[in-house]
């Protein structure tokens, strides 16, 4: 994967360089051809053109050539001179010529005079023709020069091809070197990222070293994702284990009453005529009790699912929580299993009215109280206390210039001085799939605390549990 990404990057770079090189070569060649054909950068007033058209300033008087005034002005303006020759190469007229200039030329000397600077290094000579006479135009200017080139078209094109091939090879080598350096630097983090994603897919959550540069944020986010996925994986494994334990417990709780119902039903079926009325009443009572237990179990399953999915409509009504808890305490003390237990009710407020679902809230609070009574010794003291909590320290709230009544919360505390809950179990107490193992009494479905918590949350309340082993447990409800 690493070299695959590098090859793709190198291929892209080399392709771009080759295309750019070919386009530049074609463009350069086209410009050279166009310039050669049209000479588009030649100026009309160049010295070459001036020399070739100087004949317009030459006139004949008595069959002798002379330069008119306009031509003389041009020569003075350009600091040039002119020498006119006949067909024999003899001088017949001269204007502004230097003193050392020859007056008679052979054909080879004329060629030499035109091709090379025969007078001095600063003077360039141009040649022209008019009315059977030839003339030299000399210009003394270091900025003007003439260079004679001889070339072979075949060799030129061959050399150009070699040069282009050389440039192409050099460009490709440069592109490969640069591409390899930058490609390795750019693709190495990508390779590490691909490996990291592969590890995540294989559920191996390992942090990667964060490099500096453009990929820094990507690596940081990948590490955060790895940490979160690791947490989710552990939580899921934990929930799966709890779910399996809960299913095992519920299955056991279902099998036990079913076994009783099935056993007593078979007994009544086989020995119905031999049973006394007292035995028949005892057996039917057991069957009825076990069937009610199974019904309660199924109701708990249905209730916890509806509460968790917010599909249970609550029947809200105004309820005085002080009266509500006092009546609940009296009802508990009048219940035969708990009539002799130590249950105290403390009300530090006179009245606290809230809109609640009376039936569900009673079930939640009773569940907390039952847990305190059932999972502790018979001499445990359970205290039910109600207080008002003022978040603003009793000060009045102000809206503009209008003072409003102080905002307070009703706090319900259910505390006991029993054996407490081990710290390792505290985080699992309210889980739906948790069934307490810190007590010998394992009766129940393991849904009671989860249902109670969901009921409090459905009332927009807050729930807090604190416990210390061998000192007791305290549950605080804030409405």
From the structure above, extract its key features.
single chain, 479 residues, alpha+beta, Helix Hairpins, five-stranded mixed beta sheet
Major sheet = 5 strands, mixed
Please, how many helices? 11
The appropriate CATH architecture of the largest domain is: 2-Layer Sandwich
Distance between the termini: 59 Å
Pfam families: HATPase_c (PF02518), HisKA (PF00512)
InterPro entries: BphY/WalK/GraS-like (IPR050351), HATPase_C_sf (IPR036890), HATPase_dom (IPR003594), His_kinase_dom (IPR005467), HisK_dim/P_dom (IPR003661), HisK_dim/P_sf (IPR036097), Sig_transdc_His_kin-like_C (IPR004358)
Organism: Psychrobacillus vulpis
GO molecular function, one term: phosphorelay sensor kinase activity
What does this protein look like?
Pfam families: HATPase_c, HisKA. By secondary structure, the chain is α+β, with helices and mostly antiparallel strands. It contains eleven helices and 15 strands. It has helices at residues 2-38, 47-52, 69-78, 107-115, 153-201, 216-270, 277-308, 321-333, 358-374, 423-426, 448-458; strands at residues 58-61, 64-67, 80-85, 91-95, 123-130, 133-140, 316-320, 342-347, 353-357, 381-389, 397-399, 402-404, 409-416, 462-468, 472-478. The model is unreliable at 40-44, 393-404 and 436-442 (pLDDT under 50).
What is this entry, summarized?
51% of the residues lie in helices and 18% in strands. The chain is an alpha+beta fold and 479 residues long. The strands form 5 sheets. Strands 8-10-13-15-14 form a 5-stranded mixed sheet, with helices on one face.
């Amino acid at each position: 994967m690493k070299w695959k990404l590098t090859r793709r990057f190198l291929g892209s770079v080399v392709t771009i360089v080759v295309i750019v090189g070919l386009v530049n070569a074609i463009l350069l060649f086209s410009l050279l051809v166009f310039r050669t054909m049209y000479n588009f950068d030649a100026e009309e007033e160049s010295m070459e053109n001036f020399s070739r058209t100087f004949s317009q300033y030459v006139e004949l008087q008595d069959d002798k050539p002379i330069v008119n005034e306009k031509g003389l002005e041009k020569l003075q303006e350009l600091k040039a001179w002119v020498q006119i020759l006949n067909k024999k190469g003899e001088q017949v007229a001269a204007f502004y010529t230097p003193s050392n200039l020859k007056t008679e030329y052979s054909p080879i000397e004329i060629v030499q005079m035109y091709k090379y600077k025969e007078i001095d290094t600063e003077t360039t000579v141009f040649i022209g023709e008019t009315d059977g006479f030839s003339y030299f135009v000399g210009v003394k200017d270091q900025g003007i020069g003439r260079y004679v080139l001889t070339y072979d078209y075949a060799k030129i094109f061959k050399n150009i091809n070699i040069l282009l091939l050389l440039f192409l090879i050099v460009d490709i080598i440069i592109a490969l070197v640069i591409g390899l350096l930058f490609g390795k630097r750019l693709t190495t983090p990508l390779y590490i990222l691909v490996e990291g994603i592969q590890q995540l897919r294989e559920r191996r959550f390992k942090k990667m070293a964060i490099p500096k540069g453009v990929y820094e944020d990507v690596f940081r986010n990948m590490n955060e994702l790895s940490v979160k996925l690791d947490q989710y994986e552990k939580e899921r494994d934990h929930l799966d284990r709890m779910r399996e334990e809960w299913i095992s417990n519920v299955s056991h709780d279902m099998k036990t009453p079913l076994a009783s119902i099935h056993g007593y039903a078979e007994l009544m079926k086989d020995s119905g005529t031999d049973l006394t009325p007292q035995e028949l009443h005892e057996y039917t009572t057991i069957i009825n009790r076990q069937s009610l237990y199974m019904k309660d179990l199924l109701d708990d399953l249905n209730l916890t699912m509806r509460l968790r999915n917010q599909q249970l409509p609550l029947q809200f009504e105004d309820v005085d929580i002080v009266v509500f808890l006092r009546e609940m305490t009296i009802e508990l003390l009048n219940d035969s299993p708990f009539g002799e237990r130590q249950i105290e009710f403390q009300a530090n407020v006179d009245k606290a009215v809230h809109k609640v679902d009376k039936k569900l809230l009673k079930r939640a609070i009773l569940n907390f109280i039952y847990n305190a009574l059932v999972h502790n010794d018979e001499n445990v003291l359970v205290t039910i206390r109600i207080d008002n909590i003022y978040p603003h320290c009793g000060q009045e709230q102000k809206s503009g210039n209008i003072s409003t009544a102080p905002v307070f919360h009703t706090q319900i505390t259910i505390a006991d001085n029993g054996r407490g809950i081990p710290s390792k179990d505290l985080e699992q107490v309210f889980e739906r799939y948790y069934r307490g193992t810190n007590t010998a009494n394992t009766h129940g479905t393991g849904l009671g605390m989860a249902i109670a918590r969901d009921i409090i949350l459905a009332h927009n309340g807050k729930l807090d549990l604190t416990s210390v082993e061998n000192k007791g447990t305290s549950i605080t409800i804030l409405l």
